[in-house]
Amino acid sequence: MRLKLIAAVLGLITAVVGVVAALFAVRSNSANEQADQSQERVQVLESENAALKRELANRATAQPAVPSSAAPTSAAAPAGPAIRHEGDIALVPNSGYDLTSLDPQWGQEQNCKHQINFEEGTPPQISTDGLCSGHSIYVDSLLLNASDPGTYAKCRTSTGYGRPATLNTRAGNRFCLRTQDGYFSLVSVSAVAAQRIDVHVITWEKE
User: Fold this and answer.
1) What is the per-residue pLDDT across 181-194, written as a single tens digit (0 to 9) for each?
2) Number of independent structural domains in the chain
3) In contact, 49 and 42? CB cutoff 8 Å
């Protein structure tokens, strides 16, 4: 009886060992299969990556050059003739000046060539009309708007010039003047006092 019991126990242990061995074998086979599947997946991804790189390289070489979006630079517009004379003038009673003179004093002593003169009044004005040795000294003038550029091009191309005897002499006003011999000047009134008018003058060479 005792021998039969021992034999039964040994048989049970043998059966358990067999089951455990079978389980290890199954797990080993499953792990090997998973490793094989992972390796196959890696190979597929590497193949797809290489194909994508080749496609991108082919597109880059086949794509036509994109034209530059930068607009071509155009030649700068001409600025006009050179400045002949520029500077400040203080008009006082019995004074006048030649806008086209190259003299540092603006031809103050050349009475027969004065285009602007001091005219007394309340307030005083700039006169652009006068007589010298029997002939008239005149200047055509144009009052600029505050937003107008004080440039040669503006004075040269503007219409509406007139020939008033005096200019509307207020501080801040600017005038384009056209002389008898074809010069253009820009006269900017800086200050007006009872016995003095300060102006800044730019005269351009003729074209």
Assistant:
1) 899 999 999 999 99
2) 2
3) no
